[in-house]
Design brief:
The protein is 37% helix and 34% strand. It is an alpha+beta fold.
């Protein structure tokens, strides 16, 4: 039992010594370990900081390079010789004058002074129809042939009157000779003279009836009536078919001279003081890039009962036929000249993806630049932002640069 007790005591002492030794180790080791950890962390942080600097500098250099490359790719390379060959000229951005303009929505219509509704003026049946819808016709060209019984009666009346006049002339010549030879009385001579005069009047009356309906005295058939175009133009409406019966007042064709059209727009009462006959305007359409200059030829004296606006009209020359009736347009009524800080020519501004773009002259070519534009009078455009005075931009034939930019974008996407 004693031995066992000693053993237990020894074991307890050994355990106690072990615990004390472990505690001493724990109390002495943490400081070096913590310092080493902190040192390791500081050392690791230092390289990381340096690495961060290198990392920041490397991507920054790469980003700068990429930015330069992107900017370089946007430049349309073009030498002075190539620009000159393409007709591209350069202008300096600076102050200028722009006429104030008020925009009004409008619509292209037929010039009613050069539009006619062709009617046969005689009832009948269409014997032939020569004109087609959309056909260009000349003045006096036959559009259709109408067979009319009333025309036959009128031509018969003229022929009868001519025959009677011929007979009356023969009788007059005979009575005149007899009176001169003192064979017949003066009364007989005077009666023959009166009969001839009446016959002449009858012929003139019958001829005037034919002229009133546009028919000629001589024709291949007494009932054949040729409907002709009153002036050169385009057949814009057709309401006649072969064999169709028509009335004398039926509109069978509409012919319009599309070389001249009207651009009509509504003017509110508050704008009537600024819209006057004789003012210059610029007519444009969103359907295409062309613009036309004109003059206000008419401003209505009365306001519409429904719209409470006055109608105004601009007469436009239309040699190429681009201004088609029914086309919606914008009519810019020009006012007085106004000074602006920066202007460029109208041709200098191109629309790309619904944004205004100019092509700034840079070394080696032109750089497309977004701008904010203001007023325009059809010749000059006010620049509000995107450029500064002294910049040089392409002023003419900029559509060439726009096309090149479009090709470059397509190749890049491809």
């Amino acid at each position: 039992m004693a031995t066992s007790k000693k053993q237990r005591i020894a074991i307890a002492v050994i355990v106690l010594v072990g615990l004390l030794g472990g505690a001493a180790v724990l109390m002495t080791k943490p400081h070096p370990v913590g310092e080493e950890a902190q040192t390791g962390q500081s050392e690791s942080k230092a390289p990381n900081k340096d690495a961060g600097k290198h990392a920041d500098s490397a991507p920054h250099g790469q980003e700068s390079k990429a930015s330069n490359e992107a900017h370089y790719e946007e430049i349309l390379k073009l030498s002075d010789e190539q620009a000159k060959a393409s007709g591209i000229t350069v202008q300096v951005v600076g102050a200028g004058k722009v006429k104030a303009a008020a925009d009004f929505p409008g619509e292209v219509r037929f010039n009613e002074d050069r539009t006619t509704h062709v009617v046969p003026r005689l009832a009948g049946v269409a014997e032939a129809v020569m004109a087609d819808l959309g056909q260009l016709v000349k003045k006096g060209q036959v559009l259709a042939v109408i067979a009319s019984t009333s025309l036959s009666d009128q031509r018969s009346e003229l022929l009868t009157a001519q025959r009677r006049r011929d007979a009356a002339r023969v009788s007059f010549e005979r009575e005149k000779k007899l009176w001169e030879d003192k064979i017949s009385a003066l009364q007989d001579y005077q009666q023959a003279q009166t009969a001839l005069q009446e016959a002449d009047i009858a012929v003139q009356n019958a001829a005037q009836k034919l002229a009133a309906v546009g028919a000629t005295p001589a024709a291949s058939g007494l009932n054949r009536f040729e409907v002709c175009s009153p002036f050169a133009g385009t057949v814009v409406e057709k309401h006649l078919s072969l064999g169709e019966a028509v009335k004398e007042d039926a509109s069978i064709f509409t012919v319009s001279d599309l070389g001249s059209v009207w651009a009509e727009f509504a003017v509110a009462p508050k704008d009537l003081a600024t819209v006057r006959v004789g003012q210059k305007v610029i007519v444009s359409s969103s359907a295409f890039d062309s613009k036309a200059e004109g003059t206000i030829s008419y401003v209505g004296a009365l306001l519409g009962e429904q719209t409470r606006t006055a109608r105004a009209r601009v007469t436009l020359t239309n040699p190429s036929g681009a201004w088609r009736p029914g086309l919606f347009v914008t009519v810019a009524v020009l006012g007085e000249n106004q000074d602006v800080a920066m202007t460029v020519s109208v041709e200098a501004v191109q629309t790309i993806e619904n944004k205004a773009v100019v092509f700034k002259a840079v070394p080696g070519g032109f750089a497309p630049t977004l701008v904010k534009v203001g007023r325009s009078d059809g010749k000059a455009v006010e620049v509000l932002d995107g450029l500064k005075p002294g910049d040089k931009v392409a002023a003419t034939h900029t559509f060439v640069l726009k096309a090149e930019l479009g090709k470059g974008s397509a190749e890049h996407e491809h």
